[in-house]
Amino acid sequence: MSKCAKHCPEIAPNDAQNAIDPGRRRLLAGAGALTTLMLAPGVSLMMSGAVEARPAGVAASAKIRWGILIDVSKCPDGCDLCVTACKDENGWQETGRAETNVQWIRKVTLKDKNTGAIKTLPFMCQHCAEPPCVDVCPTGASFKRADGIVLVDKHTCIGCRYCMMACPYAARSFVHEQVTNQKPHAPRGKGTVESCTMCVHRVDKGQIPACVEACTKAGNRTMIFGDLNDPNSEIAKAAGQHLTTRIRADLGLDPGILYSGL
Q1: Taking burial as the number of CB atoms within 10 A of a residue's CB, which of 61, 71, 225, 251 is the most buried?
Q2: Dist CA 182 CA 113 (whole Å)
Q3: Do 214 and 199 form a contact (C-beta atoms < 8 A)?
Q4: Residue 38: how many CB atoms within 10 A of its CB?
């Protein structure tokens, strides 16, 4: 049993989920539509800053679907507090080279080809309900927890990068060089793939992701984190009150990251 599975036995991947479905590969044909995303510099949330903690030793439950709602209209141009918070929390840094840059979270510019309208927004792993990265992984290193969080087991990842090719959001990156000063809760290693974990180590303690916390403390109030399956949660209520969208909804992957104000 891997170290990851030892600490989180409830999130070990299911063999059936790891089967490669050729039909799913056809979904990748639509990935080219994301070429309008370009790197750019740089709804409300209860200030309690907490969610219900899952007791230690209790498996993640499919009754919960963790997600984040991002109100793009409240995201200031040039603000990268969410990116900085993620770096500090998880111990990664940008390489400055497009081919090796880390993709845990980044600010991107989305441009409407028809109208020319431009919006900047935070972008990360979309934590799909039907993640193609999981489908193509030959070792089961890419897996989805019962509560919807998509992760990579660094102890079984062989660095084949099939998941990177399968992800239509370009949300994963490959570690090309040795890493130092790692965080115990966010293991990283040369020759493996990594992406946003939705700060699973915080969520399991009843806390909110670092990006959401930093944005809220700054008063931007752009992000809401919570249980999408709970009709009484703030995120579910907000999603019901605002016109929300999922990036590349046409792929049918059902992302857990929702956007409003686009």
Answers
A1: 225
A2: 41
A3: no
A4: 11
Q: Are 200 and 143 in contact (CB under 8 A)?
A: no
How crowded is residue 262: how many other Cβ atoms within 10 Å of its Cβ? 16
- Distance, in Å, from the CA atom of 103 to the CA atom of 225, rounded to the nearest integer, reads 20
pTM of the model: 0.77
- Are 260 and 99 contacting, i.e. CB atoms less than 8 angstroms apart? no
**Greater confidence, 258 or 8?**
258
Residues 6+ apart with CB under 8 A from 250: 30
For 122-169, write each residue's pLDDT tens digit.
Answer: 999 999 999 999 999 999 999 999 999 999 999 999 999 999 999 999
Contacts by 86-90, CB closer than 8 A, 24 or more apart: 86/124, 86/196, 86/210, 86/211, 88/210, 89/183, 89/186, 89/199, 89/202, 89/210, 90/183, 90/185, 90/186, 90/197, 90/199, 90/210
